[in-house]
Amino acid sequence: MTLSPARSSRTMALLLLSALLAAMVASLHVGLRTYDPDTIWRGLTGGIETDEIIVRSLRLPRTLIAITAGASLALSGLIMQAATRNPLAEPGLLGTNAGAAFAVTVGLSVFGYSGLLQVGGFAILGALVTTAVVFALTLRLGPNAGRATILLVGVTIAAMLASLTQILLLVDETALETLLFWLSGGFADRDLRLLWLGCGLLGLVLVGLVAIAGSIDALQLDDASARGIGVDVMRTRMLALGAAALLAAGAVAMAGPVMFLGLVAPHMAMRLTRRRPAFLTLAGLTMLSGALVAVLADILARLIVAPGEAPIGAVLAIVGVPVLIALLRKRGARAA
Amino acid sequence: MADILARMTQITADYDDQTALDAIDLDLPEGKVIAFCGPNGSGKSTALRVLRGLHRPSAGAASVAGRPLTDWEPRALAREIAMLSQSPEAPDEMSVADLAMMGRFSHRSRFSAPSAADHATVERALKATGMTTLADRALGHLSGGQLQRAWIAMTLAQDSPRIFLDEPTNHLDIAHALEVLDLVVRLNRSEHRSFVLVLHDLNLAMRYADEVVLFRQGRIAAQGPTEAVMTSETIGSVFEIDCDVVTVASGERFIMSRSRAKP
Amino acid sequence: MMRLRTVSRLGLLTAAVVAGFVTSLALGSSLIPPGRVLAALFGEGARMDEVIVWTLRLPRVLLAILAGAALALAGALLQRVTRNPMAAPSILGITDGAALGVVSFLWVFSDEANRLTVSIHWQPLAAAIGAFGFALIAGGLTLADPRGRGPLRLILYGIALAALAKAAVTLVMIIGPVYRAGQALTWLTGTIGAAHWGDVAVVAAGLAVAAPVLAWLNLPLRQLALDPQTAAATGLPVGRTQIVLLAISVALTALAVSQVGAVGFVGLIAPHAARLVIGAFAPGYLVATALIGSLLVLGADTLARLIAAPLELPAGAITALIGAPLFLTLLIRRQGTHG
Known about the structure:
The structure holds 3 protein chains of 3 kinds. Chain B is of the alpha/beta class.
């Protein structure tokens, strides 16, 4: 049986959605203590027993944050890949996450800012500036630079920013205490108000994305051909990268710098569809995949080193590195 | 010096999972300028690499200078045969003289600096290729023709009685190509060095080679003295073209190919 | 025949290392003027000075010098073997592999009371196993790459594997004993703080073994600048030479990392600086590389203890700050020339 692309995308979306719902339930269920469905239900509907409060005030927020951050990072990765025509692009590998984290650290340790909007503002500023710098540098590499080179620039900038962050933290012990946990990346025990920031940014970008989705699709062609069919290539690319940076900033503010999600989720979505669907459909599938992977990774993080918690970054690296290697080995992939 | 430069017996070699040489037998005489010609992918470069011990055949035996290839120690073989591969690479910052000195590897002792003999040989190689004035120039600052001559200088500095050149006229305009091949003939006649060249240009092969080996689809289509091999029938069948061999007033012969899209 | 210019520049570098050595011994929580440092070194100083210099500062300073030389040499060898000016142990995942080896060692061989059940002297071996393991995987992936064995491929696989090793290190630290984890964390960022004479001896012994081998392999090492086919045609047994040099490089990295932690980018910076100072094909290239590496790590460590005193920064963070921009410059220039 062959499905039309639209039908197959719809089926996949339903499948992903059911998987995500199941994973959400599992995420509420599994942990240091496992809760039966009754407790979970009462927790969600306002029960007042300890267990029920734990479900509502700990398990539910971390699950929601995992979903929002996962979807944001996944979409950010997809947009970067489309905008740069480079299947290896991802906010973690390209330094955007490190930039947001560094800016937040500077905000806290130099200016003493720790309010919600301030954290969000610094994260956005850092993400935008770093993304701009990385892509300005890759432009200097010339039109023939391979997609690998862009990755190298991003990784190097990320390493440098990580070193600077580390120095700042060592010098400023209060910042260290506040930020060390956040910097290690994860979905648990996060400020819930940040969830609204993340959701807001995600919604904003989605609205904007509808406007430029057609142009982003056209970026699959080479620049000259895209220009030939009437697309303002440079403008589309800038807008897209800006949107990707905003998404990454929101995710970093919520969950700290998390690598590899933006790489894994888009490729998962593309694997699920027979042919590459239109950009908006692909974006939807990617967000679902990202949310699913994030929730699953979060569950895994609770389990593998129980009673401790593994940093989500480490879990995702162990999933993501094999994906990265497989992508590197893929012959004849859409090269940039 | 043995009469046979190299001998291949039932050599089969694969390249990128494709059969490049298909059970070929080949004897190459010493003291001549021999050209390997043939269509792209016919196995001529692979044959050269196999003979130099740079590519391991999957079956068959090869011997050079009277000894099986497998018996040669790398440095000893380098003193007997020098080879310039198709697209050699060295860092841009290396100077021409440093590159030529690289050719002395098989002659130098491990710990000492280059000997007077090393320096003298390098100077001779630079002179023969007309690179003396450019000796201190970095490779990155040379033109295509100069770069090719710098590599040939390195190959000559190896001071081997037998020299393999894989498409030595690549990247060279006609003037520089002629210069390189004139040098080959001069070294062959005056210093009795043997040359095996992979050449794409059949007319250059006709003019400069004593013997020609024609490859076709991993086998040897013809071998022998240039005049005998380079006939319009043989070339026509090897390259699957229509052509004539014409003799001009000076007695030199040329290949004229004919378009198949004749009115 | 070493040119006068080369000899004089090597002399200058040596003088700089000696000056750095004395300066670094003089600086610290209490300043000891150079004259008193020298007196203490030769056993003629005040008793207090001698204690500070000999037991507190000297091992640390010597360890910085030796580890810097080892990391720099490892980088130079790696760049030659891979014919890739951007290769360095920290970029190829070797450093993180060594780190994983050490952390796993601390985890596996600790009892409930957080005491090691075997001698700490096995630690370098664990580092070596981790380093060789990751080097082998990166090399194997590159060799088996269906898209060709370009120099960039090795770096990409190295980056991927480094991320994997880092993740594994984090996990092992969480699973392992808490006390050890704290110790491993400071060590991971690359600090030379807790140096003992034993550590100094281990790195010194490694360098003492490597030096004559490298002198013996000096010519083949130069020859590797040519592409493999051409190098083989000039009489070099390419495969064998590459394997031996790669093994030395990985061993030197493991040795240094097991003692001073993951100090990155030294293997990248030092060989390039040496190229600028005396040239990549000058006879004293490796010596210059080692001296510059020493200077670099010594400088970074001295800065690390001074900038935010009494706090100590990780020396690795400082070398990364110098190394990362250099790497980018190289990348951009390389693309400029090779398109």
